[in-house]
Amino acid sequence: MKIKSAEFIKSVADIKQCPNTDLPEFAFFGRSNVWKSSLINMLTQRKDLAKCSKIPWKTKLFNFFIINNERIIVDLPGYWYAKSWEKERKNRLDFTQKFLNTRKTLKNTFLLIDWSIPPQKIDIEMIKCFIEEWIDFCIVFTKLDKCNQKERNKNQKLFNGEMKKIWINSYKNFSVDNIHWKWRENILSFIEWLIVDNNFLNNDK
Q1: Which residue has the higher pLDDT, 201 or 150?
Q2: d(CA 125, CA 173)
Q3: Count of CB atoms within 10 A of residue 4's CB?
Q4: Using one digit for the tens of pLDDT, what is the confidence trace for 178-192?
Q5: How do residues 119-166 score in pLDDT, each as one tens digit?
Q6: Which residues does 134 contact at the CB level (< 8 Å), separation at least 6?
Q7: CATH number belonging to domain 8-204
Q8: From CA 2, how far away is CA 173, in angstroms rounded?
Q9: 33: left (phi > 0), else alpha (psi -120 to 50), else beta?
Q10: Per-residue b or e along 13-35, where b marks 16 or more CB atoms closer than 10 Å to that residue's CB
């Protein structure tokens, strides 16, 4: 998929404020500071499309972007543990859960996981939630350029061990960094494949 245009639509704080369109949507979700906004900017090749912040939990709203006037990318607020923000964190996660479970135009959620550190308990819990609630998702391992091959192999072994504990032996995933850009085409091609595949299934009914 060639990106010809990428524009911000709106930010919302309530499910009722979400754009009313029939366009397919693809959400990006993960812990705070997992490279979510940066990934969206690199996918769309727009430096400042999604606002990046080094402050955890800075993104408070759901941000919608339209791609080529035919696809929508949704930047979801990051999840993060903080006792002082427990009530606000719960409210945002409740909104996120409702969005992921009820948004009919949502085709897939890209769950971002920091590959430069060992698997985090909150990430594994989120994956379990996706599986239990039948939410379509795939995993994007980020920050590969922030660790060496030995560290990546160690983290991958630990992560696969956690996945087997929840009876997951295989899963769709992508690995991204800020050096090699082949991954960009892989993700964009996957988005297009999901749209074509879903259209085929819908037409076959």
Answers
A1: 150
A2: 17
A3: 9
A4: 777 778 999 999 999
A5: 999 899 899 989 988 999 999 999 988 889 999 999 999 999 999 998
A6: none
A7: 3.40.50.300
A8: 21
A9: left
A10: eeeeebeeeeebbbbbbbbbbbb
With 0.85 as the threshold, say if the pTM is over it. yes
Beta partners for residue 140, in sequence order? 112, 174
Helix (H, G, I), strand (E, B) or coil at 150: helix
Q: Are strands 106-114 and 25-30 parallel, antiparallel or unpaired?
A: parallel
Domain boundaries of the chain, sorted by first residue:
8-204
User: Does residue 171 sit in helix, strand or coil?
Assistant: coil
Confirm if 141 and 176 have CB atoms less than 8 A apart: yes
Q: Which amino acid is at 53?
A: S
Side-chain half-sphere CA neighbours of 79 within 13 A: 21
